[in-house]
UniProtKB/TrEMBL annotation:
SUPFAM superfamilies: N5-CAIR mutase (phosphoribosylaminoimidazole carboxylase, PurE) (SSF52255). Residues 1-150 form the PurE domain. The lineage of its organism: Bacteria, Pseudomonadati, Bacteroidota, Flavobacteriia, Flavobacteriales. GO terms for biological process: 'de novo' IMP biosynthetic process. This is N5-carboxyaminoimidazole ribonucleotide mutase. It catalyses: 5-carboxyamino-1-(5-phospho-D-ribosyl)imidazole + H(+) = 5-amino-1-(5-phospho-D-ribosyl)imidazole-4-carboxylate. InterPro entries: PurE_ClassI, PurE_dom, PurE_prokaryotes. One of its GO terms (molecular function) is 5-(carboxyamino)imidazole ribonucleotide mutase activity.
Length: 159
């Protein structure tokens, strides 16, 4: 299972892309809003207990100061993938990117591109696929599909 959390419901349209891609790989997801600044107790509970509920990877999306992914990573033994979200209170998204990317040594957060929730979902699936052959086979098929799309487009352009 993959836990998908975000700091605000305004992040859901972006984070839905992670939900969609994970569900396409038949990976169970749980989705919740966990604000680092407005619900710190919930953040602590989520980060400390997600692995006890069977979560294998956490995808955390946040905008603005974007403390959610790093705070979760500081508390959880699970891999955390941070999704910087360009929010209305953001400085073109750079504050979110840097807040998630520039973690201190010992507290890693894998970071995807600004609004890159789809890639976060794929990365979460690849992490799970490293020890789950069924998921790995689906990822291999997905990547083959990407290759075929490019080959078909290339053929259309050549005509």
């Amino acid at each position: 299972m993959v836990g998908i959390i975000m700091g605000s419901d305004s992040d859901l349209p972006i984070m839905q892309e992670a939900v969609n891609i994970l569900e396409s790989f038949d990976i169970q997801v749980e989705v919740d809003i966990v604000s680092a600044h407005r619900t710190p107790e919930k953040l602590f509970d989520y980060a400390n207990n997600a692995h006890k509920r069977g979560v294998k990877v956490i995808v955390a999306g946040a905008g603005g100061a974007a403390h959610l992914p790093g705070m979760v990573a500081s508390l959880s033994p699970l891999p955390v993938i941070g999704v910087p979200v360009k929010s209305r209170n953001s400085i073109d998204g750079w504050d979110s990117v840097l807040s998630i990317l520039q973690m201190p040594g010992g507290v890693p957060v894998a970071t995807v591109a600004l609004d890159g929730a789809k890639n976060a979902g794929i990365l979460a699936a690849q992490i799970i696929g490293a020890s789950d052959k069924c998921v790995l086979d689906k990822i291999i098929a997905y990547k083959e599909g990407l290759k075929l799309k490019v080959e078909k487009a290339s053929e259309r352009v050549k005509k």
